[in-house]
What we know:
Elements: E1 2-9, E2 12-19, E3 25-29, H1 30-35, H2 58-81, H3 83-88, H4 93-119, E4 123-124, E5 130-131, H5 145-166, H6 174-204, H7 215-236, H8 248-277
Antiparallel strand pairs: 1-2, 2-3, 4-5
Helix pairs in contact: 2-4, 2-8, 4-5, 5-6, 6-7, 7-8
Amino acid sequence: MTLVRTNRVWGFITRRHIRQPDGTTKTYHSRHHRKRLHSQSVSIPNVDKKGFWRSAQLNDLIGIVFAIGAALFACGSILFLCPDLAAFWSLSANQINGIFFAGSIPFSTAAWLQLAQAANSGDFTDAGGVTQNGFKPFGWFPDNIGWLSCMLQFFGTLLFNINTFDALSPDLNWFQQDLAIWIPNLFGSLLFLASGYLAFIEICHGHWAWRPRALEWRITFINLLGCIAFLISSLFAFILPRGSAIGDTASLIFTVLGAIAFFIGALLLIPESSKSRSVDPVPEGSQ
């Protein structure tokens, strides 16, 4: 087998075209490889598909768990934006903060599942083979764009665990709130943005592309919009010395928008996986 062409972005391999002995060319995509997805125009290397960590069905679980976290973040924000609704359910501010913390748990769970999936996808070689040695809960593949995106997202969710848990403490002054809540929120959002952009360029095979008809492009683009909304939300959440945020309402609105984007992107993982399972992988010319 012969490597015909490799697509790179910032040194990361996002796509490979490999000529087979019979003269056909198979196309490898980084995202399809780590998620075990295929289509009529994309091939995945031969690998033992048995096992939870190398099955396309894992994408369904990741999507569902991530959607639960996003839904809880959206619910918490809406309850703060609509105090009458919170009063109807007799929910205090601390209880609503508890909803955010509850939402951060499935966020971290789904992010770790995605990271473990990437770590156990196997190394794709120039010859088109896959090497796989045991289960890796985290792995270390910083030169793999998919793994790096998943790793940054996972650590971002851990920071959300911290800041949403710290928000349950009712007696923090403005400085303590900025230190324990705002800073983890800001850096978690920055990690999300970096993760989202890496996932986006992994699909684009470049710094930017407009391919709204491709499902995987829509998933990563919507998630990227969610990451941008979360970052804007964190900027408005900075607590001033007088004890109030720069823009409480704006912060909550952008949290809702980001959570909705993550919810949609997460649910779209299910049809992406289902579409892959309905198509037999076949060799196809490079695209």
